[in-house]
Amino acid sequence: MNLPSDPIGVFDSGVGGLTVTRALVDRLPGEAILYLGDTARVPYGNKAPATIERYGLNIARRLNDTGIKALVIACNTASAFALEAIVKAHPKLPVLGVIEPVAQQAAASTRSGVVGVIGTRGTVASGAYTRALHEANKDLQIISHPCPLFVPLAEEGWLDGAVPTEVARTYLAPFAGTGIDTLILGCTHYPLLRPVIQRVINEVVGRQVEVLDTATATAKVLDDLLRAQALQAPRDSPAPAHKFWVTDAADSFKGVSTRFFGSPLGHIEHVDL
Q: Considering the entire predicted model, what is its pTM?
C-alpha cells in the first residue's frame, strides 16, 4: 500500500533526469526523492527498444521494492519505450513519463497549431512525441529534429558562447518558415542549454517561440496526481532526505550532477542491478 510518507522514485539512464528531479523538489519541497541513474548502461538512445524496456522494468522493480509511492521515468527514451510495460507490471503504482505532460501543455498553448520537437535520435525516431501530441490534438502539425550534440555540450558545461550557438543554429535552421510557435525540449539535458536555444529559435523563426521543457510539465502533473490520490506528504513533514543511486562511476556522476541539479547532491551510493 502506498503511503504519503513514502518517497517518490525517479530514474534516468544517467544525469539528465536530475533536471526533472530539481523541478520536483522545487514544486514539492516536502517530498523525499529516491533517484537512480543507470550510469552503467548510459546512453539508452542507441539501444534497441526491447533492451530499453528490459532495463526500465528492472529499475522499476528495484525502486518499487524499496517502497516508493510513485515513479517518474525521467528519461525521454525510457518514457518512449518502457512506460507501457512498467505500468502493466506495476498496476497499483502511479507511474509517470516525461512525454505526455509536456505534449499536453504544448497542445494547449500553441496558437499556430505547429509544434516543434527536438531530442535525441532515439526519441525523435520513436515518434512518441508525435503520438502524444496528436492524442492531445489530432490537428496539430508536428516538426521534429534530432539534436544529439546538445547532450555532450550540456555534460561538458558548454552552455553558451560560439560553439553551442553555432550548433544550435545548425540544428534549428530547418524550423525556419515552418510557422512553429512552440518548441518542446524533448531531452532532459536540454534545459541547461535553454538560453541559447531560446535565442537561436527566435532568430530562426523571426518571432518569440514558447520553449517548453519536460521537467516543469512533469512536476505539475505529478503534483496533481499525488493530490488526486491523497498521496502528498503531510505539510508538517520534516525536511526530506533525498537519496541518489548510480549503477556505475559515482565519482564521475557527482562531478557533473551539480550542474544538472543546481546544488551538490551529497552522498551518492553505488547499487547493482
A: 0.94
